[in-house]
Amino acid sequence: MNAGSKIMRGGRIVSALLGMALLSACNGASAEPTPTPTLVPTLSTPPTVVVLPTPVIQAAPTAIPPAVQPTAPPPAAPKPVAPTSAPAAPAAATCVNKAANVRDVTIPDGTAVRAGATFTKTWRIHNGGTCAWSEAYSLAFNLGDRMDGPDGIHLPATPPGSDATVSIVLRAPLNRGSYKGFWKLRDASGHDFGTGPDNNIAFWVQIVVRR
């Protein structure tokens, strides 16, 4: 095919196209317009799905019942208090012990005694109290020079107002000099008593030792 043929063929195609266009224009005047389709944009990126955390439902705390305290026993009924009697008055002393009018029967004060010699001292003692003296009473050494005297000797039974004659055996010391020993009476309870206003003065024996 030469160039001229190609040109002629091209012109025919153009004429055909123009004719088709005119035909379409004529037909289009009486035809209804074609609706334009609505284009919905397509999202290329899929929507993000937000996953919400599932709420944790906590159970309501169970109330703990308070501990049951042991029930204390009811207080005991107070015991009736017996009426207190008035305190008894102190009992008056049943009797009084007192030695009085002590007299030397033997060995008066200042008697000379040979060194180492034994001798017997005797007193006559008046019971000036209100207690009766019994054998539970005694003559007891108090202080001073003992001169080998005993711890005590029993008294004879002597009612109040009577006299008791009491004797003890003593020994003179070996050295020269003056010696004096004090004695008292002792009741059944072990309390000493003597003469004087307060019944507490001792009586004595006094000797002089010579070669």
Based on the model shown, name its key terms:
3-stranded antiparallel sheet, single chain, Immunoglobulin-like, 1 helix, 6-stranded mixed sheet, alpha+beta, 211 residues
Describe the structure.
13% of the residues lie in helices and 28% in strands. Strands 2, 4, 5, 7, 8 and 9 form a 6-stranded mixed β-sheet that branches. The protein has a domain of 112 residues: Immunoglobulin-like. A hairpin with a 5-residue loop joins strand 7 and strand 8. With 211 residues, it is an alpha+beta fold.
How many strands?
A: 9
Q: Which term fits the overall shape?
A: rod-shaped
Distance between the termini: 208 Å
Number of helices: 1
Mean pLDDT: 77
Give the secondary structure arrangement, pairings included.
Blueprint: H1 3-30, E1 99-104, E2 111-114, E3 118-127, E4 138-144, E5 152-154, E6 163-171, E7 177-186, E8 192-193, E9 203-210
Parallel strand pairs: 2-9
Antiparallel strand pairs: 1-3, 3-6, 4-5, 4-7, 7-8, 7-9
Brief characterization of the structure:
The protein has one helix spanning 3-30, and strands at 99-104, 111-114, 118-127, 138-144, 152-154, 163-171, 177-186, 192-193, 203-210. The radius of gyration is 76 Å and the shape is rod-shaped.
